[in-house]
Amino acid sequence: MRTFALVLASSFAIAIALAPDVARAQSVPARGTEDLPRARVLDREGAKAYAEGRYNDAVRYFEEAYRLGGPPFELWNLAKCYLRLDQPEHAAELLERYLATPNLASDDRDEATQQLDTLRKRSSTLTVASSPPGAQVRIDGKVVDGMQTPLSMSVAPGTHTVTVTLAGRPPYTKQIDARYGRAIILDAPLSATAAAEGGPVKPPPANPYDSIEDDVFAKRPFAVRAIAAAMLPRYGSVGGTGQAEGLLSATYRVSSAGALSLAFGGLLSFTGDKWSNTIAAPTTASPCGDLGSSTSATAISAFLLGDVGIRLFSRGTFHFQGGGGVATYSADRLGGDLFVPTCKASPGARPAMYLGTQFDFAVTPAVRVTVLPIALQVQPAFDGVRSQPIDTSGIWLRASLGVGVGLDL
Q1: What is the pLDDT of residues 81-108, one digit of tens each?
Q2: Any idea which GO molecular function terms this record carries (predicted)?
Q3: FRET pair for 105, CA 20 to 30 Å: which of 68, 126, 243, 268?
Q4: β-pair partners for 376
């Protein structure tokens, strides 16, 4: 009988001489004589890779050698590689193809047949568990004596019927296919019935891992958020400096479908606006005299809000928000770069629009950490703004980003 080394070393020389006939027998397209030296080099590299334990590399060499017109024993070499790679199914397929080759040497055929037969007769390890444990196991109707689940046993190759039984519960039956020594794992759920238990079936305990995911969209429709933000304003053609902003929102989820939700509510924004007096505007106005602090005011905005939520993962939801409302200033003296000097109590109210995004992360079923990546407030200019020497009568814009906390109730 030939060893693997002999197959690699001596048979190739014989096969090269017979290569045209072998190629026809294997239905491999005839190759030019220039391919045979290439195939021999690849075979030698494959033998070297196999000896060094580089079985994946050996597979690539032997496959290419066979493609170039190498003899059938390349299939046997490939089968040996796949056995080393713990792929017995693929190895068996290659051995079957090798044995289908006509005119094999009798000792080669006998050795390959014995190897294939050994592979097919490998026993598999069957592991059986059940819920609850302590059940009896039958293999093809025969009781596995002295053992209860969980258990492991060796089973012969072939198809088997496994039955798991426990007193007072319906039996569990399943067919298994043991092949090439592959491990088989079987988990038998043995559910109780009302008759067996003498009463109604008890529901399973609550899954603690479901609590946060279920609450994100299903159980807590009312959301309150408080956010501290940095706001950058623009007053018509005049840019402002960054200011602190506070936002408070409340929404109620009216519907949800899969990962999407729809909510409505309201939002309040408070900002301490400040600006400069670069044009040296007067600091007095009739009838109030000295204007004092005429370059700051409290900006207050209120919006009716629509919210579309998209659940990105079990704890994370991204929101697109938009709405309309009103904006006003709380100030009794105004001037500087933005306003014609005045001591009117208020510059009035203006319609305003809000557009923003928001990301919520569920820390607990009720508590959220909220990030405001971007929010925009847009409004017309207030009464009394300047048109010269600088123009603040255009659209006023506030861009914000921030972080906050919230509760879902």
Answers
A1: 998 888 888 888 888 888 888 888 888 8
A2: isomerase activity
A3: 68
A4: 355, 399
- Verify that 95 and 137 share a domain, yes or no: no
Task: Find the distance separating the first CA and the last CA of the chain, reported in whole Å.
Answer: 80
Q: Give me the amino acid identity at 122.
A: R
pTM of the model: 0.49
Cα angle vertex 288, ends 286, 291, to 5°? 100
In angstroms, rounded to a whole number, what is the distance separating the alpha carbons of residues 301 and 322?
14
Q: Specify the DSSP class assigned to residue 334.
A: B
- What's the structural domain count of the chain? 3
Tell me how far apart the alpha carbons of residues 247 and 251 are, in angstroms, rounded to a whole number.
Answer: 13
**Could you tell me if 355 and 368 lie in one domain?**
yes
Distance CA 110, CA 1 (A): 8
User: What secondary structure letter does DSSP report for 103?
Assistant: T
- What's the rounded Cα separation, in Å, for the pair 63 and 93? 14
- Host domain of residue 57: 4-120
Supply the DSSP symbol for 314.
Answer: T
CATH number for position 355: 2.40.160.20
Question: What is the 8-class DSSP label of residue 29?
Answer: P
For 272-300, give one letter per residue: b (16+ CB within 10 A) or e: ebebeeeeebebebeeeeebeebbebebe
DSSP state letter for 141: T
* 311 and 336 fall within a common domain: yes
CATH of the domain at 185: 2.60.40.1120
Q: Does a structural domain hold residue 66?
A: yes
